[in-house]
Structure formats: structure tokens, C-alpha cells
Amino acid sequence: MAASGPLPMARLIRAGLKLGDWRGVLARRSFAGLRDRFYRDLWAAAAAAVGAEARPAPGGMTELRRGRRRTYVLRAQTMLDGALTDRLLADKALSYALFSEIGVPVPDHAAFDLSDLSPAEALLRRAPGGIVVKPAAGTGAGHGVTTGIADRAALRRAARHAAAFNPRLLAEPVLEGASWRLLYLDGTLIDTVRRDPPAVTGDGRRSVAQLITEESRRRRAANPVTALNPLTLDADARLHLSARGLGPGHVPTAGQTVVVKRVVNQNAAAQNHTHGTAVHPEIATAGSDLVRRIGVRLAGVDLMAPTLDVPLARSGGVFGEINVAPGLHHHVLVSDPAARVPVAERILDHIFDSGEGALEL
């Protein structure tokens, strides 16, 4: 029997909205094979380092064995956390409510949808630095996110873009400071990375749009790998460039660096900087308490703060989200490979030593 009612119409609307991002969708899909190879190689190297054996398994998984213990991984997914925990924390509005109950600082925010932009408009009025609009749930890697929104017209465009990914939307103020990823394993901080926004370097001949296209081409062919996502000229990039008096056709001078967008998820190794566990103890403890109370065993905690050398109460920093099955490539593809923390090895050693997230056969 054919479905009827509002649900099919909502799906049609979302499909129509998503057509506006078809270039981005195709660009991201073109990196799927690269992401698969990167993680297969990462887990195989980590297994060898901890005295385990790696072999292919059905469904694109990798089977890892040491002694009688066996575990399975798929890209960044391990057997440590469940799918429902992942789904719960993928809901950004719900996550903020939970974080607030626990007592950690979160950004001012407003939940809304395309039928009523007034909550986001109210936030825009009280956010002199502009706002960010993103899907409220069901996405990652910066998909559907637009930053630097300063007026109602830009808000409408950003809302339509985000609604292509999820009908529930979230608005937050643009926050000053750096984007940090803290990686916790059973409540212990094992690595921290500062993630800077993606940028291109001019040659005096090519436009920003051409440099972005060339950067994505370079990433697909790079050996060793430098990034697992393309760099795309999306709504966030256009708005960010426009706010600086630039556009896709601007030709930077030779050696000039142009930050392409504020969303950091499409950056590359050159923009990821390892900080290990050099974090103020209050921040490290707050993150540990948060992931333990939420019940996430392998957690990528996002923070926005100028520095992690002082408590968040002094810097004005806030917690963003907890990523279940966090992308380990953020910790591996870094500007100084000699300083990176061997996170995959740490995770495997923990699984095999503790038996958590492993089968006993």
C-alpha cells in the first residue's frame, strides 16, 4: 500500500533541497574509497604494533585477533559503544540539554525548523558576531553547516541548506577561539588536536575556486594521505569569503593564504596540530566526567576555546558535542607526524587487555 500523508511530502522537500548540494554530495562520495583504504591500513598497522593479526571481514569490516580475543572495526567504528548511544549524541539539541544538566558550559542556542525561523532570528539579534546554522541531528563532518550568518536573508539560505540534511535545525552564535578535539578512552584523555579551518595558498594565477578544485584533486592523489574529505565551495565558504570582501573568482597573490571557510571538518593534515594531553587539569577532568556520565567509552569531545591552558570559566570556552566512533584521522593526519599520538594502537591494546569491546573465543 502506498504511503500517504506528511512524511512522503517531507521527504520530497528534503530531496529537492538536497539537489542544491549535489556537487558536494558527489565530491564526498568520490573520497569513499580513500577513507576505506586509510582505515584498513591504519588498523592493520596498529594490529602489527600491538602483536595482533588483521584480516578482512564481511561488510567492509576488519577482524583483529590477539590470543583468544577478537574484535571488529569498520572505519572509525569499534565494538566499544552501541548504535543507540551514537544516535542519542548525534542529536545536538538533546546533547546540549544533557550537558547542561551535568553542568558543563554549552553555547547559547535555538532549535527551529523551516516553518518558523523566529527562534533563530531572535538569536541573531542577540549575537553581534553572527550565528551558525546546522542540522540538529543525523549528520557529521560539517555537512549542512553554515557559519558567519549576519542577516535574515543569509539565515534563510543557511536554513534551507541545513534542512536538506535534517528538518530539525539548530542555531548558535559564532564563537571566537580555536576548535579542539579531545579523545577519551574509558574516561582517560589520550590525545588532543587543535583543528584549524581549511585554507588554500595562492599562486598569483588561479582563482580561489580553482585552488579549491586543485586542492581536492591533490588530496585524492596524495601519498601519504593528507585528508579524507574534499574541499568544497559550499554555502559556508561563499559566505565566509564574501564577509572578507572576496569571492570564488578572487585571485590570491603568490604565497597568500586564504582561509576558505570557518567549518573545520574539511581541513587537511597541515591544519591539524597535536597537543597530546597538554590540557588544563580542570578541562581534562570535566571532559572525563562528562563522557563517563553519558556512558561513552571511545569519545571525541569537541570544544571551542581560545586556549586549553586555562579553565573554560576563564577563557569563555564551551563544550560542543561528543562524537561516538570519532574520526581517528584527526589525530593521525597532523602537521607534525613525528609528534602524533598512536591512538589506534592505544585503543587496540585497551580492547585486548581489558576484553571490553572484544569477543572471547
Write the layout of secondary structure elements.
Layout (H helix, E strand, L loop, with lengths): L5 H13 L3 H8 L2 H18 L3 E4 L5 E5 L2 E5 L9 H8 L1 H11 L7 E3 L5 H8 L5 E5 L10 E4 L2 H12 L5 E5 L4 E8 L2 E8 L3 E3 L6 H14 L13 H9 L13 E3 L12 E3 L6 H14 L3 E8 L6 H4 L2 E7 L4 H4 L10 H12 L4 E2 L1
Antiparallel strand pairs: 1-2, 2-3, 3-15, 4-7, 5-6, 5-7, 8-9, 8-13, 9-12, 10-11, 13-14
Describe the fold and architecture.
The chain is an alpha+beta fold and 361 residues long. Helices cover 37% and strands 20% of the residues. Strand 8 and strand 9 (188-195) form a beta hairpin. Residues 1-7 have low confidence and may be disordered.
SSE string: HHHEEEHHEHEEHEEEEHHEEHEHEHHE
Oligomer: single chain
CATH topology of the largest domain, which one? D-amino Acid Aminotransferase, Chain A, domain 1
- Rg of Cα set: 21 Å
The biggest sheet amounts to: 5 strands, antiparallel
Query: Average pLDDT value?
Result: 92
Q: Approximately how much beta-strand content do the residues carry?
A: 15-25%
- The count of helical stretches stands at 13
Provide the number of structural domains: 3
Unreliable runs = 1-7
Proportion of residues in helical segments: 25-40%
The shape, in one word, is: globular
Structural class based on helices, strands and sheet pairing: alpha+beta
Distance between the termini: 46 Å
CATH superfamily of the largest domain, please?
Answer: ATP-grasp fold, B domain
Number of strands: 15
Widest sheet: strand ordering: 12-9-8-13-14
CATH class of the largest domain: Alpha Beta
CATH second-level architecture of the largest domain: 2-Layer Sandwich
